[in-house]
C-alpha cells in the first residue's frame, strides 16, 4: 500500500505555522544581516554617531537594512505565501516598518550597551539576539495578525537562529565577533 507524501506539517503539529512566522520575519532577519556586509564599502560608510553608537553603526549599514527589508517584503508581496499574517498589499509601509524597526532596535541596544559600559562585540544575552526582532515586532504590530503565542514563538526561534547565524558569520569572516 502506498503511503501519502511526507509533509512536515503532519509530523510536527504547528510546523507550517512556525514556518509562516519565520517567513513573516524574513524582512527583519535579512535587514539585521545586511549591515555587516557594508564594512567592505570603504570611504562613504560613516558612523551614525561615534559617541553614542560607536564606529560600527554606520549610515550605509542602517540604509542597507532598510533596503533589504523593503526588497524582501516586496518579494513576499509577489509570492503571496504567509498565512494571511500581514496585508502584503501594503508592502512599502510594512517593509519600512520591518527595516526601521530592526535597525532602530539594534541601534537602541548599542546605545544601552554603551551606557552600561559593555564594550562593542561583548555579549549581552538576550538583547544581542532579540533587539532587531523587538524593534520590528513593535513597528509591524499595526499591520500584523499575531497572537501572544505567535510572538513567543518568533522570539524563541529568533533567539536560537540569531546565535547560529552569528556564529556561522564569524566562522566565515563576515563578522568580527560571535555576537
Descriptive notes:
This protein starts with 7 loop residues before the first helix and ends in an 8-residue tail after the last helix. The mean pLDDT is 88. It has helices at residues 8-11, 15-33, 50-53, 59-79, 91-116, 127-140, 148-171; strands at 47-49, 54-58. It has one domain. It is mainly α and 179 residues long. The protein has a two-stranded antiparallel ribbon. The longest helix is centred in the middle third of the chain and has 26 residues, at 91-116.
Write the topology of this structure.
Blueprint: H1 8-11, H2 15-33, E1 47-49, H3 50-53, E2 54-58, H4 59-79, H5 91-116, H6 127-140, H7 148-171
Helix pairs in contact: 2-4, 2-5, 2-7, 4-5, 5-6, 6-7
Radius of gyration, taken over Cα atoms and rounded to an integer in Å: 17 Å
Regions with pLDDT < 50 over 5+ consecutive residues? none
Structural class label? mainly alpha
Question: What is the general shape?
Answer: globular
Largest sheet entry:
2 strands, antiparallel
Task: Give the structure's gist in a few sentences.
With 179 residues, the chain is mainly alpha-helical. 63% of the residues lie in helices and 4% in strands.
Summarize this structure as a short list of keywords or feature phrases.
63% helix, mainly alpha, 179 residues, 2 strands, two-stranded antiparallel sheet, single chain
Amino acid at each position: 500500500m502506498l503511503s501519502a507524501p511526507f509533509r512536515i506539517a503532519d509530523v510536527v503539529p504547528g510546523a507550517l505555522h512556525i514556518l509562516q512566522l519565520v517567513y513573516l520575519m524574513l524582512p527583519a532577519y535579512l535587514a539585521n544581516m545586511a549591515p555587516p556586509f557594508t564594512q567592505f564599502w570603504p570611504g562613504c560608510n560613516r558612523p551614525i554617531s561615534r559617541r553614542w553608537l560607536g564606529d560600527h553603526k554606520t549610515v550605509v549599514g542602517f540604509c542597507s537594512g532598510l533596503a533589504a527589508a523593503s526588497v524582501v517584503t516586496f518579494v513576499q508581496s509577489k509570492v503571496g505565501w504567509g498565512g494571511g499574517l500581514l496585508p502584503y498589499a501594503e508592502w512599502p509601509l510594512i517593509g519600512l516598518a520591518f527595516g526601521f524597526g530592526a535597525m532602530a532596535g539594534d541601534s537602541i541596544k548599542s546605545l544601552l550597551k554603551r551606557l552600561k559600559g559593555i564594550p562593542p562585540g561583548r555579549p549581552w544575552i538576550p538583547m544581542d539576539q532579540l533587539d532587531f526582532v523587538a524593534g520590528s515586532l513593535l513597528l509591524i504590530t499595526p499591520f500584523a495578525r499575531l497572537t501572544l503565542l505567535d510572538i513567543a514563538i518568533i522570539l524563541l526561534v529568533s533567539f536560537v537562529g540569531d546565535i547560529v547565524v552569528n556564529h556561522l558569520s564569524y566562522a566565515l569572516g563576515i563578522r568580527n565577533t560571535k555576537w
